[in-house]
Design brief:
Layout (H helix, E strand, L loop, with lengths): L21 H18 L1 H8 L3 H14 L20 H13 L5 H7 L7 H10 L9 H12 L7 E8 L4 H10 L4 E7 L5 E6 L4 H17 L8 E4 L17 H8 L3 E4 L9 H15 L7 H18 L10 H8 L13 E2 H10 E2 L2 E2 L13
Parallel strand pairs: 1-4, 3-6, 4-5
Antiparallel strand pairs: 1-2, 2-3, 7-8
Length: 375
């Protein structure tokens, strides 16, 4: 069994946090905040090798502003009195359009009349969208696939909720038969394994229920939950409004109860959960736009069949044509493939069952009040 190489987070500050980009810094600071919330400020100071004031600063910023408070603020001046005159900027733009292959250094070399620094020329080109284009999207996606291929199955998971009432073909059946309005989804980034559940409600409690069932399932097959990450967006259904990890709820269940790790995607990076969003697009085309249902029970039967087809049979051509099952077997040949048989849950039913059980005892429903009159 292979294992991932882990970096000791205690050395992140001493290795030079200032050489990292803004998103990496925010991720490190979130680890500091979580450690301080659980163990206290002084232990966080010793663990990460930074000052108490640093820990207090990011803890305060996170409690006040959430994950946005962990990012560096811009230090750019409000005004720039010595900015390059408009006429000279137009001259730089004209020279660039005459020779699109020339960058700042070449423009300055071949045009001695431009009395500007290379930095000033670069700024002008950037502001006018005249810089060379970055690598194409498909090239960057291929690079990202290579990174994800190094993960172990079930180590990096993305979770999201799909609204179903905006699918025209499904909507008519949903309203007539009382079918679910929301799909709760967890997808493994490496193998593509996907677990779905459905409900008529949209809240943090349902997200917590599915995630707890998923983590229990992995643990029952011997997966070490310390190496499992659940990544979500910053929605309220994933407890983003709760700043303290000790507050019961979605994040507390993942981190404190099961010892796994939870991550929010960086603010403004909607495509950071692209894997689970891609599945939402696929299931809409292959399931909701095609299937007809006779009842709610019939819906869950067909959803179970589709999930099994997706995890066991359907090839994923962005993963070299392999199925999730094949990728999982490559990573964990000694673990039973029964781990891929995750039920499709009706979260409304599971939630009602949880509410009936209080401290291990079933709560009996109150008898109906007989008033002798009909309403």
């Amino acid at each position: 069994m292979r294992s991932e190489v882990k970096v000791d987070v205690r050395t992140t500050y001493t290795m030079g946090i200032f050489n990292r980009n803004n998103k990496e810094k925010a991720g490190i600071r979130l680890k500091i905040v979580r450690h301080a919330q659980i163990h206290g400020i002084k232990p966080a100071e010793r663990h990460f090798g930074c000052s108490k004031n640093t820990v207090r600063k990011w803890l305060r910023n996170f409690e006040e502003h959430g994950t946005r408070g962990l990012e560096d603020k811009s230090r750019a001046p409000i005004s720039c009195p010595h900015k390059t005159p408009k006429a000279i900027e137009e001259q730089v733009i004209a020279k660039r359009k005459e020779a699109p292959c020339h960058g700042p250094k070449s423009l300055k070399h071949y045009n001695p009349s431009l009395k500007l620094s290379e930095g000033a020329i670069y700024r002008i080109l950037k502001e006018n969208d005249l810089l060379r284009k970055h690598r194409k999207k498909y090239q960057r996606k291929n690079d990202l696939r290579e990174v994800k291929a190094q993960y172990m199955s079930f180590s990096h998971n993305q979770e999201d909720v799909k609204h179903l009432y905006d699918i025209p073909y499904y909507w008519a059946q949903m309203t007539a038969l009382g079918l679910p309005k929301y799909e709760y989804t967890i997808r493994d980034v490496k193998s593509g394994f996907t677990a779905v559940a459905f409900a008529n409600e949209y809240n943090e409690q349902y997200s917590e229920i599915l995630t707890e069932l998923f983590l229990k399932h992995l643990r029952s097959f011997g997966i070490d939950l310390k190496g499992v990450i659940i990544q979500t967006d910053n929605g309220s259904e994933f407890g983003a409004k709760k700043r303290d990890i000790m507050t019961p709820g979605f994040v507390n269940t993942i981190v404190m109860k099961y010892g796994a790790e939870h991550r929010y995607i960086p603010p403004g990076c909607c495509n950071a959960n692209a894997d689970v969003e891609s599945f939402h697009s696929t299931i809409e085309k292959e399931f909701f736009d095609l299937e007809s249902f006779g009842s709610r029970e019939h819906f869950f039967h067909k959803a179970t069949v589709y999930q099994s087809f997706y995890n066991f049979v359907r090839p994923n051509f962005s993963k070299k044509g392999k199925t999730p099952l094949q990728i999982f077997i490559e990573d964990y040949p000694a673990i039973s493939t029964e781990i891929m048989n995750f039920p499709v849950y009706d979260l409304d039913t599971v939630f009602r069952q949880k509410m009936e059980l209080v401290e291990g005892h079933y709560v009996h429903k109150l008898p109906e009040l007989n008033t002798g009159t009909e309403l």
